[in-house]
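Hi X.,

You mentioned you wanted examples for the new student's onboarding notes, showing what a folding record looks like when two proteins sit in one file. Here is a clean example. The first protein comes first, with its sequence line followed by its structure tokens.
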Amino acid sequence: MRLTGLRELTRRRGVSTLLHVAALLAAWLAVGAYQTRRHLPSSQTPAPAFELVDLDGQRVSLAQFRGRRVLVHFFATWCGVCKLELPSLRSLHDGLANDAVLLAVVQDSDDAEAVRRFAREHELRYPILLGSDAVIAAYRVGAYPTNYYLRPDGSISSSSVGLSTKLGMSTRLALAGLW
């Protein structure tokens, strides 16, 4: 094969690879937009306020984290995808800077002792709040896991549904601090 033919073949493969990557990225963005279509919009308006009880019986208010980037993670102990995501959440929490916080809101909060056992079994060290129907409805959570990323001013930066990686969550949380 002549050198120019080899160059042309290499160029075509490169263009083909770029087109495949672009198609995958477009599909990923479309699926994400579809999954979050009913979520609260990203805007400059504040995320819905809440005050919930943690596993130690302490009242925790979203307002007490004003000035920090916040990941509000909605999950259920029965959710298989939520369980797959736990190592990423643990790792994310362990590496958070002082200006960021992870708050997990559990859907199946009617049995606090069962949630405590779940947290111990999975070595969860981040705050777990016992969710309420009102908070879950206010955030329009329709599937688990659901994540909302809040800016330091308390407004919604973005949201996601489904399995997330540490890199994905870290990136969205970092972006929540930029605007």
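Then the second protein repeats the pattern, sequence line and then tokens:
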Amino acid sequence: MSYLVSQRTKEIGIRMALGATRLQVAGYILGYSARLVGPGLLFGAMLALGVLQYIASQIELAIDFYDIPAFLLSLAIVAVSALFATLGPTRRACRVDPQNALRSE
């Protein structure tokens, strides 16, 4: 996300010069992050369930491989960590000065 913000500084500056608020810029960055994290979480969850099913078929133990609360907790931890990883670049994007962004490059 940091790379995205650094590459799109000029675009963010143009948006802010045209009247975009800091909340709209933050929504743009956070929305882009959600569009990246969402499919990754979905694909990872499906892959994890497939691996769990394979392991359960190979191992004959009396334990429950499908611990739903632990599975959901792990997905929530990944989602929250992705949010925290996005907050720094989002904060930097909201502080872009439109004049300096348009003047650079």
